[in-house]
């Protein structure tokens, strides 16, 4: 958010500043901070320039958009990590844990299936089809209209997501291509880890050690127990995070163009699959670092937060205020952390710009201009990346009214990424689904998503601010019986929303699951009513044979009607382009 940085830099060298309640504390860099910050950002830009001008590279769209399909496992996995987790994790996770406790950590449980399914289902299908755009799959499976609708939906999703993380990162993407983006992501991931570790080490040391941090967190009710409340209206429980989070991860790591484009840039299918396995422990580390930073923040400020004192305007700004406060007498480290923050945002944005340029070129432009030369197509791709950067800059203001960085980012991916996930699942897992069902299902999913999302936003801004933390979060870990009883007692004292308000109160972590399910259910019903697709009409390689295994008990004639007989499964698993 544009005002965030200026809202968190304050004069160095003085004790806690005397500020009138409600005014924003101003903090400033020292010369050393500016030098470190500038050097790290110049290094990021230098990677893009290197790949733009070294050895005459980036002469074809294949090189610019797909890194010439030459990347190894490690840089791809680190780029996958940086693409969507970094900036959200740096700002959102610590403020979430500081305010609500460590319940958010259970999101890590969703990473298992959230990465295992893409590795063994989505990646093999996409890689063997030798796609450049994920949405090429939709044309192969359904028709061109479904592909265009999927592309437009993705562009809408990414433009709004980038408005949350917008920064001046357009230049090196516009000239360096995907290879520059991936290697820049690797560099920025290292910077991100260094910045977070520096904050945690120095902050916990100033608080009296990690043991003291934990003691204060326990006493302050910030160590959450295992909340097994199945109510989908609860913002964060084990089920919303651990199960609802799986669908969010599938929308991110399974079918999102920015991620799939990285898989497809791998040298081999095996390296693409391995990148999912490598990114898993890295994700857990990022999650733990974010949660630990939030606990260190609480150990420093307790309930007397900078937000309550009026030093900052939002929860997200507290992280930067905390960093400048901790590093007050350590010149250079504030510059490192802010560079860490920028690195996280830039890696996300650069990935998005490149993927937006890819889908626009492959899905919307090339089909209408098949005779366009490679030189013109490559130049146009670079121009598209630049144009999308300018569009996202213009939309940045919208992000300032969407709530916290964490919830805003996940809500957008649930609202728009959820229906896209449903569209791909409909085509990949249900052979009888036809193009009419796909179109109607996507429209129904998007309509449901925006109905709930907009209704939730309107209800939230008109409602009083909720109590940040339930008393049950202070309970010992895994003390389920007591936790259940206490949760029931608390629930009886608060009025539960009913009717349409209950739908608007659905936890944002369920958005992706709810909206993708809507697409699949509506798509299947419409397909059956309009005439299911025949087996001979399917493009080989576009269906994953999961139903043939799950419905093994059905007679062969029913399997044949559902297009899930064994011969089809064989063709799907063995087919690939030469």
UniProtKB/TrEMBL annotation:
Gene3D superfamilies: Sodium/glucose cotransporter. Its main location: membrane. Keywords: Cell membrane, Ion transport, Membrane, Sodium, Sodium transport, Transmembrane, Transmembrane helix, Transport. PROSITE patterns: NA_SOLUT_SYMP_3. One of its GO terms (cellular component) is plasma membrane. Belongs to the sodium:solute symporter (SSF) (TC 2.A.21) family. It is found in: Cell membrane. The chain crosses the membrane at residues 34-53, 73-92, 104-127, 148-168, 236-255, 276-299, 336-359, 379-399, 405-429, 436-459, 508-529. This is Solute carrier family 5 member 6a. It is a multi-pass membrane protein. InterPro entries: Na/Glc_symporter_sf, Na/solute_symporter, Sodium:Solute_Symporter_SSF. GO terms for molecular function: symporter activity. One of its GO terms (biological process) is sodium ion transport. Pfam families: SSF (PF00474).
């Amino acid at each position: 958010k544009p005002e965030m940085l200026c809202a968190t830099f304050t004069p160095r060298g003085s004790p806690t500043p005397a500020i009138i309640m409600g005014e924003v504390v101003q903090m400033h860099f020292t010369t050393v901070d500016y030098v470190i910050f500038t050097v790290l950002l110049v290094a990021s830009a230098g990677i893009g320039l290197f790949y733009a001008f070294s050895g005459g590279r980036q002469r074809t769209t294949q090189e610019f958009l797909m890194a010439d399909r030459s990347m190894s496992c490690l840089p791809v996995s680190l780029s996958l990590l940086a693409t969507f987790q970094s900036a959200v994790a740096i700002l959102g996770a610590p403020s979430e844990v500081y305010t609500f406790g460590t319940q958010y950590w259970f999101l890590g449980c969703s990473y298992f299936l959230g990465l295992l399914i893409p590795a063994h289902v989505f990646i093999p299908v996409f890689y063997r089809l030798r796609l450049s755009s994920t949405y090429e799959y939709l044309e192969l499976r359904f028709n061109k209209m479904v592909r265009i609708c999927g592309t437009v939906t993705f562009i809408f999703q990414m433009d709004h997501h980038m408005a949350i993380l917008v920064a001046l990162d357009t230049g090196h993407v516009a000239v360096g291509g995907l290879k520059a983006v991936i290697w820049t992501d690797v560099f920025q991931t290292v910077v991100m880890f260094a910045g977070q570790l520096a904050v945690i080490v120095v902050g916990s040391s100033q608080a009296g050690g990690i043991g003291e941090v934990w003691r204060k967190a326990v006493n302050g009710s910030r160590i959450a127990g295992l909340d097994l409340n199945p109510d989908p209206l609860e913002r964060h429980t084990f089920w919303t995070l651990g199960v609802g989070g799986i669908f969010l991860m599938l929308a991110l790591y399974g079918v999102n163009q920015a991620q799939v484009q990285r898989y497809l840039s791998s040298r081999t299918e095996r390296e693409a699959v391995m990148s999912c396995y490598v990114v898993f422990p890295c994700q857990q580390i990022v999650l733990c670092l974010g949660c630990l930073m939030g606990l260190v923040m609480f150990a420093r400020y307790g309930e007397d937060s900078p937000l309550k004192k009026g030093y900052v305007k939002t929860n997200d700004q507290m992280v930067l205020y905390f960093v400048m406060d901790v590093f007050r007498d350590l010149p250079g480290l504030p510059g490192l952390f802010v560079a860490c923050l920028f690195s996280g945002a830039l890696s996300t944005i650069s990935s998005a710009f490149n993927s937006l340029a890819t889908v626009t070129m492959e899905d919307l432009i090339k089909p209408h201009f098949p005779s366009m030369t490679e030189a013109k197509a490559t130049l146009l791709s670079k121009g598209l990346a630049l144009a999308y950067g300018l569009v996202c800059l213009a939309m940045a203001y919208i992000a300032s009214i969407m709530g916290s960085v964490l919830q805003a980012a996940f809500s957008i991916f649930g609202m728009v990424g959820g229906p896209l996930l449903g569209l791909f699942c409909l085509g990949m897992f249900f052979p009888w689904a036809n193009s009419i069902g796909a179109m109607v299902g996507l429209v129904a999913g998007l309509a449901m998503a925006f109905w709930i999302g907009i209704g939730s936003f309107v209800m939230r801004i008109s409602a009083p601010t909720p109590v940040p933390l339930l008393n049950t979060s202070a309970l010992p870990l895994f003390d389920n019986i007591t936790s259940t009883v206490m949760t029931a007692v608390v629930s009886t004292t608060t009025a539960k929303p009913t009717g349409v308000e209950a739908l608007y109160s659905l936890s944002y972590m369920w958005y992706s699951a709810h909206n993708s399910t809507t697409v699949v259910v509506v798509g299947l019903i419409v397909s059956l009513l309009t005439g299911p697709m025949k087996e001979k009409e399917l493009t080989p390689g576009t269906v994953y044979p999961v139903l043939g295994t799950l419905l093994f008990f059905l007679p062969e004639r029913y399997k044949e009607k559902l297009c899930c007989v064994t011969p089809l499964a064989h063709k799907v698993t063995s087919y690939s382009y030469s």
